[in-house]
Amino acid sequence: MILRPRRSALSPAARLERELTGWSYRHSRDLTGFEDGTENPSLLDAPEIALIPDEMPGAGGSVLLFQQWPHDSAVFHALPVDAQERIIGRTKADSIEFDDDAMPPDSHVARTKVNVDGEEQKIFRRNVPYGTVTDHGTVFVGFSREQWRMHRMLEQMAGIGVRDALTRYTTPLTGAYYFIPSIGALGRFATPAED
Question: Which of the following is catalytic: 36, 45, 72, 82?
Answer without folding.
Answer: 36
